[in-house]
Write a structure and sequence with these properties.
heterodimer; A: 395 residues; Rossmann fold; 43% helix; B: 291 residues; alpha/beta; 5-stranded parallel β-sheet; two-stranded antiparallel sheet; 15 helices; membrane (chain A)
Chain lengths: 395, 291
């Protein structure tokens, strides 16, 4: 490492350079004040740093404040001190996180597909090699086979979306959770005095209540259980909803998440993975059949019979994200929801189609479900989900 | 003392510090700044303070933080019972109110809690504020006053200034974001799981009786295990327990008996799902790789 930056000859000396380095860090988003520059100089003198490794360690201990900054520090240090040999106006471009407004479109996916050459474009037929006909007449054929093609959900969901969804999920969670109990329990920082405990404690001091003990109303946590439909008809909205699920799992450690199409899969454990992309990867491993048919009734029935017994109680909010297009009889859906409702939970149905003009819940499945729902709302973008906050708080 | 000397003397007390940590500790000592250590549970953050206290020949004062920790638990509290007894006794003796008041609000009636105790020592102690992220933010603000001024204001007594500046070490597991103000006042180091060579050195320092070949195997096993998807990743203390368990059972080779290996895994895997995940076969496979 001999590529040490050569500073200009009119450079006034090491002090100015260290101050310049601190300014360089500050420009790159590290929160450093004047005091840190002075401290850095004193620190360098104290450790008698002669090699650049020693300098690096010293400055790192002084100038960083969290793990994130430590990870960025080395690059910033190299840029300033071990540059190719000029005084450089230190600009390390920060990775821009583009905010994607059109989260409900599947444009990215189409692009990815086109790049990897997996499919023809959406409007033109394949080039004669595949099964598509050139003349544009085709027919729908039913198949008894399950859709087993695996779709890598990592193409669909990006970390930025999850970060945005996490914020929304946090707010929704807070809106749902803020349920105060009517009772009071002992607490260090309560708003009222806990007389019984205070008097009991005062016995030790001869009846003088020296220790005032307090009580408060405890928060009663409500648990969100989210069930997301990932059948073919929902694939357009999957990106938003999956990001929302991933965000919800990260924001709320009591939440529970499931995917269903023709089967039901619990994805809570997979989404809890600390590494976001690995979490999505694990989810896509479990969700084979993604984009296939939908059997909402049987899936919910299965949920009510199995997982709901363990995870759903009177303090749960069951959130169903689906368009209600069901291939199984509507009675099954109705029966499943009735059973679920008996557990005392609140059921919310978020339907991406409801946002459409002139939408009426005439899909037989949806019509059968309506009587059991506490809230039926449109949602097809993250913004829609965010705007639910008020409705959820009112529940 | 240079940081390499500090590193060596810490090593003599059985604590193998990485270069980064040694430099940070040396800076904390020489600049008199508090040192904030972050990292996963079980990487030896608390142990740093203990080792530092031994090498510096200083007293270790420890404040374990928890939710709802308040000034009366952390800084000082009046000895109410004793005050009350004194008042009762004074009433019988016919002492005047003024003199009683002056007496019961004196240093004799003050119970020193860790923070006050740390600044009133004759020689500088090592003050360990453990798991600061568990305490709430109001307490953090309290702490800031003490960490910057090294003085405590007691309304009845006045301000007590430090007779000696303690060496302050704060640890955090990152369950909550600490305030920027606190981070700014501290030097910072992130303590990660040690690499293979460092962990081997730790094992040799702590359990010198483990044979070289077995030590290699143990470290290889634990390092591979950390890469598995576990809920609770085994830390250094767990590794030492594991080594001690193997020594106690008189095992010289990890691959020799999969059953015994599986039963000693209770020292490393601390949740039910982790234990279910690392089955006998998986453990044997990892041990085979490590050998």
């Amino acid at each position: 490492m001999s590529r040490v930056t050569k500073f200009a000859s009119r450079d006034p000396g090491p002090t100015a350079r260290v101050v310049g380095f601190v300014a360089h860090l500050r420009e790159n988003g590290l929160r450093l004040g004047v005091g840190e520059a002075e401290l850095a100089l004193r620190g360098l003198a104290q450790t008698r740093a002669v090699t650049h490794q020693d300098c690096r360690r010293t400055l790192r201990a002084i100038c960083t404040g969290c793990k994130d900054e430590i990870e960025r520090f080395d690059a910033l240090f190299d840029a300033y001190w071990l540059d190719a040999g000029r005084v450089k106006q230190k600009v390390i471009p920060k990775p821009q996180t583009p905010i994607n407004d059109s989260v409900h479109s599947n444009r990215d996916r189409a692009e990815q597909d086109a790049q990897s050459g997996l499919s023809g474009s959406a409007t033109a037929p394949d080039d004669g090699q595949g099964e598509a006909d050139g003349d544009g007449t085709g027919k729908l054929i039913a198949t008894m086979q399950r859709q087993l093609s695996r779709q890598d959900l990592r193409d669909l969901v990006r970390p930025e979306d999850i970060a945005a969804a996490e914020k929304v999920a946090l707010r929704l969670g807070a809106a749902l959770r803020d349920q105060r109990s009517r009772r009071r329990i002992a607490a260090c920082k309560g708003d009222r005095l806990h007389f019984r405990k205070t008097i009991r404690r005062s016995l030790a001091t001869g009846g003088e209540p020296l220790h005032l003990l307090r009580k408060r109303r405890p928060d009663r946590q409500r648990k969100i259980v989210a069930l997301c439909d990932v059948s073919g008809s929902m694939s357009l909205y999957a990106q938003v909803f999956l990001a929302f699920l991933a965000g919800l799992m990260r924001a709320d450690k009591d939440a529970d998440a499931y995917l269903f199409h023709t089967r039901l899969v619990r994805i809570t454990e997979a989404l809890r993975d600390k590494d976001t992309m690995r979490a999505i990867g694990r989810m896509s491993m479990m969700a084979d059949g993604f984009g296939g048919g939908s059997k909402i009734g049987p899936s919910l029935q299965r949920f009510a019979d199995t997982y709901a017994k363990r995870f759903v109680d009177g303090r749960s909010v069951v959130m169903i994200l689906s368009d209600g297009y069901d291939t199984s009889p509507p009675e099954e859906l109705s029966k499943a929801l009735q059973k679920l409702k008996k557990r005392g939970c609140t059921i919310i149905w978020l339907n991406p189609l409801k946002g459409w003009k002139d939408y009426a819940p005439i899909a037989s499945g949806m019509a059968a479900a309506l009587p059991w729902l506490d809230l039926f709302q449109p949602a097809n973008t993250l913004a829609d989900l965010a705007s639910l906050e008020k409705e959820l708080a009112a529940l | 003392m240079t940081w390499t000397e500090l590193q060596t003397s810490l090593g003599g007390d059985g604590y193998v510090a990485s270069d980064d940590l040694a430099v940070a500790l040396q800076l904390a000592l020489s600049l008199g700044r508090p040192l904030l250590l972050e990292g996963a549970a079980g990487v030896g953050k608390t142990e740093v303070a203990r080792a530092l206290a031994t090498t510096q020949d200083a007293k270790l004062i420890r404040l374990q933080c928890y939710e709802g920790l308040d000034a009366s638990q952390a800084i000082y509290e009046w000895n109410y019972q004793r005050q009350l007894l004194t008042i009762r006794a004074a009433a019988e003796d016919g002492e005047t109110g003024k003199s009683v008041e002056a007496r019961i609000f004196s240093r004799d009636f003050l119970l020193e809690r860790p923070l006050l105790a740390a600044i009133t020592q004759d020689t500088p102690p090592v003050l360990l504020i453990d798991e600061i992220d568990r305490a709430d933010e109001e307490f953090e603000a309290y702490l800031l006053e003490i960490l910057s001024d090294f003085q405590v204001s007691i309304p009845e007594l006045g301000t007590i200034t430090a007779t000696s500046r303690p060496i302050v070490i704060l640890t955090s597991n990152g369950t909550r974001d600490l305030s920027d103000a606190l981070r700014r006042r501290c030097l910072y180091t992130y303590v990660d799981y040690p690499d293979r060579a460092t962990e081997l050195a730790i094992l040799k320092a702590r359990c010198p009786e483990v044979e070289a070949q077995l030590a290699e195997q143990i470290i290889g096993f634990v390092q591979t295990l950390r890469k598995e998807e576990l809920e609770k990743v085994p830390g250094i203390a767990e590794m030492l327990d594991f080594a001690a368990a193997l020594m106690g059972l008189g095992i010289a080779d990890l691959t020799s008996s999969p059953d015994v290996l599986q039963s000693t895994l209770t020292t490393l895997l601390k949740t039910q799902s982790d234990q279910a995940q690392i089955t006998r076969d998986v453990a044997a496979r990892i041990a085979g790789k490590a050998a």
